[in-house]
């Protein structure tokens, strides 16, 4: 997965394209690639802005006012440069329902939005494989985007993950869990086959290690 850190990134959109979207008086969004997109948004769309603007008659459009106070705007000839990190809380709200997982709270990751990935996560916890463990595999091996705010001093991280191919992600996580659980049953006395609980047995059968 690619990391898109809003502390470091500047989104660039065509001034003409943005004005056309504002003038349309339709609900539109600006995605992280600097494109104006309209509802209904695609499942994996990642937005830094969403809104509808009704321009006053005979008044020139003020782009900064139209997009709101949280986005930092610089107009450079025919381009509009946007620094979106100050709007992070609003960006979470805009994108959370489309995200594959949410890592924006101090509680960490507790579920996947995709039901098949969530089934893996639910069973994996029986063998102390956490959602964080699974997400690290996703971020290392699968195609997607992690949109985040991350800085080193003082350390701060908050992010939403978007997986682009759930079938591939499922296969990757299933194989990881299968191999890890098989090894645990063979080598870890705490998970010896004859000591497994009913829930652990169910998980082991789900991953086809017994």
Quick take:
With 210 residues, the chain is α+β, with helices and mostly antiparallel strands. The chain has helices at residues 15-23, 63-67, 88-95, 115-124, 131-141, 166-187, 198-206, and strands spanning 2-5, 11-14, 28-31, 36-38, 47-51, 72-76, 79-83, 101-103, 144-151, 156-163.
Sum up the structure in keywords.
4-stranded mixed sheet
Describe this protein's structure.
The protein has 210 residues and is an alpha+beta fold. It has two domains: 86 residues, no CATH class; 108 residues, no CATH class. It is 35% helix and 23% strand. The strands form three sheets. A four-stranded mixed β-sheet has the order 1-9-10-8, with helices on both faces. Strands 2-7-6 form a three-stranded antiparallel β-sheet. Strands 4-3-5 form a three-stranded antiparallel β-sheet. The longest helix has 22 residues. The protein is elongated. The mean pLDDT is 94.
| Helical segment count | 7
Helix fraction bin = 25-40%
What is the global morphology? elongated
Whole-number tally of structural domains: 2
Low-confidence stretches: none
Helix and strand arrangement:
Blueprint: E1 2-5, E2 11-14, H1 15-23, E3 28-31, E4 36-38, E5 47-51, H2 63-67, E6 72-76, E7 79-83, H3 88-95, E8 101-103, H4 115-124, H5 131-141, E9 144-151, E10 156-163, H6 166-187, H7 198-206
Parallel strand pairs: 1-9
Antiparallel strand pairs: 2-7, 3-4, 3-5, 6-7, 8-10, 9-10
């Amino acid at each position: 997965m690619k990391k898109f850190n809003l502390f470091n990134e500047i989104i660039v959109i065509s001034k003409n394209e943005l004005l056309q979207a504002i003038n349309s008086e339709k609900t539109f969004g600006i995605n992280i690639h600097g494109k104006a997109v309209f509802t209904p948004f695609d499942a994996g769309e990642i937005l830094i802005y969403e809104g509808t603007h009704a321009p006053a008659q005979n008044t020139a459009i003020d782009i900064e006012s139209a997009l709101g106070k949280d986005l930092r705007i610089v107009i450079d000839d025919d381009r509009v440069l946007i620094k979106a990190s100050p709007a992070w809380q609003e960006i979470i709200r805009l994108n959370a329902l489309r995200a594959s997982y949410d890592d924006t709270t101090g509680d960490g990751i507790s579920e996947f939005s995709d039901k098949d990935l969530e089934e893996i996560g639910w069973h994996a916890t029986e063998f102390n494989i956490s959602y964080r463990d699974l997400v690290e595999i996703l971020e290392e091996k699968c195609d997607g985007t992690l949109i985040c705010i991350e800085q080193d001093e003082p350390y701060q991280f908050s992010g939403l993950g978007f997986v682009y191919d759930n079938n591939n992600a499922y296969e990757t996580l299933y194989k990881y869990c299968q191999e890890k659980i098989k090894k645990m049953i063979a080598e870890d006395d705490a998970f010896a086959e004859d000591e497994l609980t009913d829930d652990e047995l169910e998980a082991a059968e789900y991953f086809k290690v017994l």
